[in-house]
Design brief:
The chain has about 400 residues and is an alpha/beta fold. The chain has an 8-stranded mixed β-sheet, sandwiched between helices. It is elongated, with a radius of gyration of 24 Å. The chain starts with 12 loop residues before the first helix and ends with a helix. The structure holds zinc ion (2 copies). One zinc ion binds next to loops.
Amino acid sequence: MHPVTEPEGAYLASARQHAVDEFIRIRREIHAEPELGFAEHRTAALVADKLEGWGYAVERGVGGTGVVGRLVRGDGQRRLGLRADMDALPMAEHSGKPWASRRPGVMHACGHDGHTAMLLAAARRLAEDSHWSGTLVLIFQPAEEGGGGALRMMEDGLFERYPCDAVFAMHNMPGLPLGHLQFREGAAMASSDYATITIDGLGGHGAMPQHAADPIVAAASLVMALQTIVARNVDPQQTAVVTVGALQAGQANNVIPAQARLELSVRALDAGVRALLERRIRALAASQAEGLGCTATVDWRRGYTVLVNTPAETALARAVGLELVGAERVTLQGPALTGSEDFAFMLERVPGSYLLVGNGDGEGHCMVHNSGYDFDDRNIAVGAAYWTLLAQRFLTA
Ligand SMILES: [Zn+2]
Ligand SMILES: [Zn+2]
């Protein structure tokens, strides 16, 4: 064990009395053995075994490798869902930590190891705690990083078998002070859609373009035209992103290729804007290609939906944050993010709220998905205390 020092301030004193050391060890164990989406076999088994040991009724293999633990106490009728994600990312780790990944090319670079450990720590405390009454549903989901594990669990009957009156989830955020809690009512994270645009022209000799239809010129024109969507079509008060992340065509300086391909990432914080982006991208792909003698085919793939935090549940989440860490460590209405999160699908079905916990600011704090990133273990106490207090307030005894 490496020593873990207290963050500034004493607000965690009571939380730390609850022996988080065991969960720091678990977090580092999960970190050292990261698993990709829908392959979280070891992590899921660890989670399920722990929950069973504390008296939870556990179902394994929900939506692939998901785990659900349910605990009923007293005669309370309310049902609370708390969600953590378990998957890692396909990238090499360069954190230099003693608990760095032992699996080449796989890394917990988004802190889902920490989210899992925080919810486990809360699970044990709530199993020993008598200050609540009702049904607690702990959801450990697979494949948050693009695999849509939340949706898979729902398609597998998650909320039919485990009905919830509200669901909550928490994600760490580098750049926010350690242990700082940030909330937001309304649209908080963006939808993410993906498009592959294939432009077909007519290949030919680079010296005789008059006999060809050049898809590279059409692709270049399209890349520039796409920039006008956010600038000219989207309401300036709204948020939208259109990124061309890949453009591939040709291999030789004297050959006009027959085809070019673009890969797009498209984000919005509103369903209407999301639909507008798709319409405009399709229209520009067709018109730009046609204007240059080519044709365009758009393969549109819908990804995660807009994440919307509901008012009443966000109010409760904020009140719990204020009670736990005080106003100086809480942002009641933070900015929306253009990143995406598949907890959004759960919030389409069940009211709830998604909050952020600061992973620390200043130098040496890598952003998530950076190869030097590591979850800050001191947040396990924060997260466990937060989930415990939220459960006590929602499932009032
Ligand atoms: Zn991530
Ligand atoms: Zn994440």
